[in-house]
Each structure stands twice: as C-alpha cells, then as structure tokens.
Design goal:
The chain has helices at 16-30, 81-100, 114-127, 141-145, 154-169, 178-186, 213-219, 239-248, 265-275, 291-296, 318-324, 336-343, 355-367, 369-385, 388-409, and strands spanning 2-6, 34-40, 58-63, 66-71, 106-111, 131-135, 172-175, 194-196, 225-230, 254-259, 280-283, 300-304, 329-332, 347-350. By secondary structure, it is an alpha/beta fold. The relative contact order is 0.12.
Length: 410
Amino acid sequence: MHVLVVTDNFAPERNAPAIRTFAHARRWVAAGTRVTVVTSAPNFPAGIVQDGYRNRLFQREIMDGVEVARVWTYLAPNQKVVRRSLDFLSFAVSGFFAGLAQPADVIMATSPQLLAGMSGALLAFVRRKPWLLEIRDLWPDSIVALDMMADKNVFVRLLRWIESRLYRSAHRIVTTNEGLRERLIARGVPANKIGVVPNGVDGAQFTPRPRPQALLDKYGLAGKFVVGYIGTQGLAHDLQSVVKAAEKLRGTNVAFLFVGDGAQHQALVRHVERARLDDFHFVRSVPAEEVPDHIACCDVLLVPMKRTETLSDTMPSKIFEIAAMERPIVIGAEGIAADLVTAHRAGLAVEPENVAALTAAIERLKAEPELGRAMQDGCRALARDYSRDKFAAAMLDEIKLAAKVKRANR
C-alpha cells in the first residue's frame, strides 16, 4: 500500500502536526508501507525557510525512508491573518498539483489548516482514491475562539462550508481525542465514520536524564528552580500570565526558560524587558535532538492554555514529551488535557488565565520537592499509556479502513 499524505507542516518543523505526521510516517515505512508526504519548505512559525532548504517550485528528499515532496508556498509568519491565509491557500493549490504526480493508493490530509484537507479531498476526487481526513483542531471554531476573525466573517462562513463538504466526502475521519469526536457527531457526522487516535510520545527519544550542566551554565540557570515552557509561543497559549507570574516570583530564586518561537514571541520579549526580569530566558527554536536536554534543564514544565470552549477539547502534545522526561507538569486548562494530567497524578492543574493560581502552583512545587518526585510515577504511567508506536499502528489501521470503505461504496 502507498499512502500519500498532504500536510502543510512536516519535519524538521517542531509543531505538533509536523512531529505527529513524521513520527507516524516513519513507523509506517518500517512496517512495510510506502509513504509520500506533500508539504512545504520548513518555515513554521517564523515564515523563514530553515537552513538547508529553499522555497522552490518543487523539491524532493528522503527522510528515514519517507518520500517527501516539498512545494512552493507564499511564506508568512504565524501572526497576520491575511498573510497566513494566503500561505494556506497557496499550499492548497501547489500541494494539489504536486499530489497529482505522486503515486498513491490512499490519500490522507491533516488539519489544521483546513485548506490542506480541501487539497486532499480534491486529489481523492480527481484520482478516484479513498481518502482520510485527520482533524487535530476544529477549524474555523478555533479562529473565532481566539478572536482572529468574527463568526459572521465571509471567510469564516466559507470555511464552514468547506468543512461540512470535507466531512461528507471523507471515507474516514480521525480525531485526536473523544471531545473532538463528540463535537463532530453533534454536527451530524455519523459516529461510525469517526476514529480516535491520540497524540503520543517517542519513548526512545524522550527519556529521563539528569539536568545537563553545560546548558544550565550557558543560560545562567545553575542553582535555580527552573520553570520551563517548550514549544510554539502561539495565540492559543496563555503566556502573558506566565510573565506576570514571573514578576510575582522575582527574587525567589525561580528562573524561567522559554524555548521556541511563534506569534507571541516578540510581545513576550518586550514584556520581559519592560519588567526587567533578569531570570527570564528566551531561546529560539532548537533542533529536535536538542529538545529533550532543554526539557531536562527544568524542574517543572508549563502547559498554559487560553480559556475558550474550543480549547477544552485540545490535547497539547507537549504533555506526553514532558511526561516521558518525568518532569512535573503545571497545566493551565480546563477539559480533557487537565483531566488527563491530574488523573495520572503527573502534575497540577490550575484555572486558565489565573496568575495567582499559576504562581501558587509553582511555589508549591518549589517548596515541596517530594511532591515533584512523587509525580514522576504518574509521568511514567502517562507516557506508557500514550506510546507513539501503538498509535502509529492504530492510525495505519484507520487508513486501511478508509480504503475498505471506498471499496464497499463501489
């Protein structure tokens, strides 16, 4: 079987869709499945092409046995709505034409962004192939929830029309959690059409380790209680509350380490500079192989989310990487992600956008080191339950089911 994957984000990018898709694809190849990925030149979140790549009309490479076809897109940072929309649209068009020339038995498209799903649907229609739509986030609900566009905006209404058409045409739909599945069912998508394949973690890459002294010295963190945030500094994350918590913790030997980039990065840097927070350190995006050591620098890791109804069904993939590293988690969220962390006793959940509650949780973990050590057992259990190997196999089964449904419909 040859699987053609259409995705706007792919390795070496470090956002959740890129990590998940590459992790699955390389495992499918190892299991004997041929995989071709149509994607863009790696540029997320800054809109700047990474070293070693160019934004060409077409280029091809092999990554761990996965055939990667990269296409030209209009590049834009993950900030301005209009420019990002042009980025998404350009990939939908160029990805479609590139996909016409790639061999495939089954087509899979992953969302967000939704226009990548439209490209996959058109490819499936033109080439008469079965196709699967992966829903990681409900577009355009998230756009509206984050106040990026009004619900009655003409572009939002167009996206809702595209969304409904995609749900109808897909032979199989896969979401990342039961909350998203229930929301799709409420919209009229048949329950037997929707599978659930959660995010997970690569236990071989993310393993517990001592704090790396070289990095602690490099960033001035030696002897500090380090609170970390590792990942995209995007609009869905409540990172301003973290800076305000750092202001409250000034002078308490607590240091903050932010690793990554994104739409909020420059605003956060300005806030920290204005507040003169000497113990707040920013590190721009690092290579994938360096992420575990940066997590290991930290005594506690944060997963702070904005308060919206849509995000209550979001499961940040960084939870699983932190758990595999056996570091306590402080999650600012309500919904399935907070429930998962507390059920496994892998960390503390606080009310989203509540600076006082976030500050208190950090202070508690600093004052009670035995509590952090006790959470290591919960982290191990969480990481064991969410193994990437298991879920990659489950996703491949879903793709095979999409092909089976197509044959049955004939």
